[in-house]
Design goal:
Elements lengths: L1 H11 L2 H13 L7 E2 L2 E2 H14 L3 E6 L4 E4 L2 H6 L3 H4 L10 H15 L4 E6 L6 E10 L5 E10 L4 H30 L1
Antiparallel strand pairs: 1-2, 3-4, 3-7, 5-6, 6-7
Length: 187
């Protein structure tokens, strides 16, 4: 198939552009012709996108500059902004100064090739989320962006830790008071 297509394109003219196009297709694994069972890879990617649209967590893809390339529908509810208004724009306007500092630090680490996790609160909705990001890499291993998920949290990790400490203190106090009550009743 590819040899026939290659020959037809060469006959069409501008062989330098066509050659570069074909090299690019080979580097990218020629997704259009790969098959996984009976489903073409592009169909598989469309199905993956359809699945991401249905999850309640925010799914996103950004380029190496932090411009948002994809967000699922959960973005609108969680961030309080329309997807269309942020496609191709940086994530910076989504956060206040303190959260932006955390987001920028995590983004830098992701662009350096690390998987990152951080808690951020959206400026417009006040919704707290746990963000998990992984670097996207091209065929040569160069980081070209990030992909991730943001899951809404009811409480931050620090609040959960403090709540657990408070529960333990309360349990100890309850135990002490119960022992005192038993002792008083026995007397």
């Amino acid at each position: 198939f590819y040899r026939d297509r290659e020959q037809a394109l060469k006959k069409a003219g501008n062989t330098e552009t066509i050659t570069e196009y074909l090299k690019m297709r080979r580097r990218e694994g020629t997704l259009g012709t790969c098959r996984t069972g009976k489903v073409q890879v592009w169909e598989l990617l469309d199905k993956l996108k359809a699945a991401l649209e249905e999850i309640p967590d925010l799914a996103y893809v950004s380029d190496e500059l932090g411009n948002l390339l994809y967000m699922n529908r959960a973005f609108e509810e969680i961030a309080g902004n329309r997807v269309e208004d942020f496609i191709g724009r940086p994530f910076h306007p989504l956060f206040d100064e303190a959260n932006l500092a955390v987001a920028a630090g995590c983004f830098e680490k992701t662009m350096a090739g690390e998987r990152t996790t951080c808690e951020l609160q959206f400026k417009d909705t006040g919704i707290l989320c746990e963000f998990k990001s992984v670097p996207l890499k091209d065929a040569s291993g160069k980081v070209t962006g990030a992909i991730g998920i943001a899951r809404q949290l009811r409480r931050s990790r620090q609040e959960e830790i403090q709540l657990e400490k408070d529960r333990r203190v309360l349990a100890c106090l309850l135990q002490e008071r119960t022992e005192e009550l038993i002792k008083t009743n026995e007397e």
